[in-house]
């Protein structure tokens, strides 16, 4: 190494570039119920895709298969050309070991409707946990980043609070900081504001908008249509396990081509 080599830059608290997500021919059934009936979706690096659709249409299942929280029956998910949950040898796919899956999941931040914070851990400990336990990073290195992430979501002063001492909006912001802590390439949000009192929705949407501007690849399931119009590069309408319509927000939300999309939008707008 030459003496003129620049020192490594300080670790960023969020990824500089997002990953490229490919969902290809994905089928998923529970018993006889086909929940994903052949889903193809591409999200280009740094783009924000908003998924809308009626309850039971398969939106959460789509997010969960991307994260390998659910296994696909057919098809595959890849991020930056790496298969999620499997390794390929010739024509055969082999499921990764649990530890490898956990490690792979650190590339994908997941924010749940119900926050899902560890109730016995402080806000700071919630954010520190995955980088240390799943990525094997040193706590001393992770902690300053975790504090910076809490500051980024407006909670610098809540590092030592436990979830029950926080409002729903604050808990969800901790959950977002936690999702960012592993420096994921992709962020998945499953109705992140649906469990919040109406007056707390805005503070969470503001944080997500801020992230959307930062170049992270995002997939957001939401019923907040105004928000979708603001942040989405593409909007996807799902019904009965299929993508019925997709395109720029101005097309899908304002000039929907399909009767089912129109019927859905009339209900939620
Ligand atoms: P959405 O998020 O669009 O409301 P989901 O993906 O949660 O839809 O669910 C789609 C369908 O799959 C629903 O009918 C739901 O009841 C069913 N489903 C989801 N998860 C399971 C499961 N683990 N076992 C059985 N059925 C499930
Ligand atoms: Mg859902």
UniProtKB/TrEMBL annotation:
<comment type="similarity">
    <text>Belongs to the ABC transporter superfamily.</text>
</comment>
<dbReference type="Pfam" id="PF00005">
    <property type="entry name" value="ABC_tran"/>
</dbReference>
<dbReference type="InterPro" id="IPR050086">
    <property type="entry name" value="MetN_ABC_transporter-like"/>
</dbReference>
<keyword id="KW-0813">Transport</keyword>
<dbReference type="InterPro" id="IPR003593">
    <property type="entry name" value="AAA+_ATPase"/>
</dbReference>
<feature type="domain" description="ABC transporter">
    <location>
        <begin position="21"/>
        <end position="265"/>
    </location>
</feature>
<dbReference type="GO" id="GO:0005524">
    <property type="term" value="F:ATP binding"/>
</dbReference>
<dbReference type="InterPro" id="IPR017871">
    <property type="entry name" value="ABC_transporter-like_CS"/>
</dbReference>
<keyword id="KW-0547">Nucleotide-binding</keyword>
<protein>
    <submittedName>
        <fullName>Amino acid ABC transporter ATP-binding protein</fullName>
    </submittedName>
</protein>
<keyword id="KW-0067">ATP-binding</keyword>
<dbReference type="InterPro" id="IPR030679">
    <property type="entry name" value="ABC_ATPase_HisP-typ"/>
</dbReference>
<dbReference type="InterPro" id="IPR027417">
    <property type="entry name" value="P-loop_NTPase"/>
</dbReference>
<dbReference type="InterPro" id="IPR003439">
    <property type="entry name" value="ABC_transporter-like_ATP-bd"/>
</dbReference>
